Amino acid sequence: MEQRGIEPVPEEARTTHWGDIFSIVFNFLVNPGMILIGGLAVAGGLSFWGAVIAVTLGIAVAFVPYIIVATIGVDHGVPGQVSTRMTYGVIGSRWIASLLRVAVTTFQFAFQTIAGALAIVAVLHAWLGISLPLVPTSLVFAAFQVLIATMGYGPLKHLSRIALPLKVVVLGFSLYLLVSHDAPGFHPSEVLSFNGSSTLGWVGIAVWANSVAAAWLTMVTDAADFCRYSRTRADMWIGTMAAAILGALLSAVLGAYGAAATLGTVSNPFDVISGITTSGVVFVALLIVVVLDNWTINVLNLYTGGLAIVNMIPRLGRFWSTLVASAIGIAISAFPAIIDGFNTISGVAIGCLFAPIAGVLVADYVVVKRWRIDVPQLFVHGGRYWYLRGTNPVAVLSTAIGAVLYFLLPEAVLRCLVTPILTGLVFVVITRLLVTRFEWARVAAEPISVPARAAAAEDAGATVRP
């Protein structure tokens, strides 16, 4: 069980190579929830290619700020929630970035759990004729995932290694079953030419791409969590980007294919797959993949949610904080209606908050602080990152302005792409204007002089304070 909480990971413990990063991120992207989104997009009116483009584009947009902020974990070994203290302040990060992250991560845990439960219910009904109630199945499924989440990063890494090849084989075979099925509508030529609703066009693609991007942008504040054990930036960049592109494509194609083959009438591809095979081996393999998938992917939502709670209440520790996040996630898993509300919840409620947060974090880290952080000061009350009463007013104001801009932008614009850029510009401009007027603003705009990697090595043994 992982004992380390929010303190920096020492240099000698950063041994994770790009393959492990690839397996974690790839597993995260190829899961029942992401696959279901591809099907929901087609059922919502997009063509097969429109759904694939929307999902892949959404992931690509979100991964730009994600991979930038993830660099903090590689260079300094600190978790993402702690790193947000450099921008929002020691106190501000707790009650803005961390509080919002807890709310969103528990929603995402519930969404993935219900999606997995839907797959289990569909497979067992088709295989054995058993009709399990969805809500109790979701709750039991959620409870089993808590065990892995509380154990920490190590078990997650090892389970990901086991799950990755099995998942690729089973889901690849599932796609083969869809492609080779001889029923009307399943032939590749019919699926690839499925146009959905011709009235949607680019706006429909933009709406779905934005929802996918918004869902992943919530991970920006936790990007460093997955990378703080990485050996080098190159390991993180290669593993993360390769997994993002390949994982998004596989999920989108599998989900969209099943929905397009049924002319958009069935959004859950596991329902479609279960209806075209009678093989017990295939059913067992699907069940194993769904369970392993949630054990290796969905539990990351609880893991990062636990770290966010630790950032808010350090005395709880990672283990108990993870249990708190788990309790909230299990409670939300009792409401299957969140599946149908994905576009509204993710594209609107989540996007308006985390798109500006991503813009502020990237602008501060890259433009203002020039890729450098004073790590020990992240844990000091009244220190460099205390700003004004523990909060950076410019970051808070810029985030609020960004949220308003998000709603003002038309749907045809990729709001999760444009909003972070505009919000980042607002943050930089206001920061520069206040530098000569307030001491806390001058400190906020002053990068440390020690190069990032050298600082990380020097600060590896820093004493952690609440």
Automatic annotation (TrEMBL):
Transmembrane among keywords: yes
List where the protein spans the membrane: 21-42, 48-74, 95-124, 130-150, 162-179, 199-224, 236-260, 272-292, 319-339, 345-366, 386-406, 412-435
User: In the UniProt record, does the keyword Membrane occur?
Assistant: yes
- Which family, according to the similarity comment? Belongs to the purine-cytosine permease (2.A.39) family.
Q: Where in the cell is it found?
A: Membrane
Q: What is its main location?
A: membrane
Q: What is the protein's name according to its record?
A: Cytosine permease
InterPro entries the record matches: CodB (IPR030191), Pur-cyt_permease (IPR001248)
| UniProt membrane topology term | Multi-pass membrane protein
Q: Which UniProt keywords apply?
A: Membrane, Transmembrane, Transmembrane helix
